[in-house]
Each structure stands twice: as structure tokens, then as C-alpha cells.
Amino acid sequence: MKILVVDDETDVKTLFEQRFRKEIRSNELEFAFAFSGEEALQFMNDHEHEAVLILSDINMPGMSGLELLKHIKVKYEKPPPIVMMITAYGDDENYNAAMKLGADDFLTKPVDFTTLKEKLKTKLS
Question: How far apart are CA 46 and CA 44, in angstroms?
Fold first, then answer.
């Protein structure tokens, strides 16, 4: 199962690979990384229907995670990927905007990987 992680901070790749080492080794999960909203859309165009779940930061230079979410929910109808938003700002404004645009979940940074793993099991089963 492929998960696309979208975040402008490149150290996120190392962090996810460390925290999900066991799941990656056992081929339960496969991760792809995009470091901008634009790069994420390019990945989605090149690998349509591969990413079943997208974890996206909200605040990124260029296209924000909310703009990316809007594109994903409009363009990728069948099957729509599950989109979970991640932000350092757990304010009501970001939460409400994300939910209104169709986000499936909302997490705050720093990411609690135990909680994230639980949510992934629930969403992907």
C-alpha cells in the first residue's frame, strides 16, 4: 500500500523511513515523498491510483496543502485517495478549511507516530 507524504521539509523523509522501518521492510507500507504541492500533483499524474493515502502538510511555499487537497478531491474521484492533513498550527481555521475541502483527517505536528499508525490501520483496513 503506497502512501504519499507531502511536506516542504525534506527531513520528513528520513523521519518516516525510521518510524515505519518495520512496516516498510515487511512490505506492508510503501512511501513516496513530494516536497511541494506541485510535485505531489505531478506524482499523482504520473502514478495515478497508486497512492491510496496522502499525508500533506498545510503550510508550504507555492501551492499550500489546502490548495493541493482541493485539486485532489476534484480531479481524483475514483477511487478518491484518503487525504490526511498535517500542520504545526492546530487552529480551528485550518481544521475547518481542511474538513470543508474534504480532508479525511487532521493531525498536528510534531506527529505522534503511535497515533498515526493507529489511524493508518483504521483508514486502510
Answer: 6
Cα gap 90→110, rounded to integer Å: 11
Output the CA torsion 75→77→79→81 (10° steps): 60
CB of 39 closer than 8 Å to CB of 73: no
Nearest to 103 by CA among 82, 119, 75: 82
* C-alpha to C-alpha distances, 53 to 58, 82, 92, 93, 99, nearest whole angstrom: 16, 5, 23, 23, 16
pTM assigned to the model: 0.93
DSSP alpha helices (H): ranges in the chain? 11-19, 21-25, 37-46, 65-75, 92-100, 113-124
As to burial, measured by CB atoms within 10 angstroms (0-12 exposed, 13-18 middle, 19+ buried), residue 103 is buried
Q: What is the pLDDT of residues 31-79, one digit of tens each?
A: 999 999 999 999 998 987 777 899 999 999 999 999 999 999 888 766 6
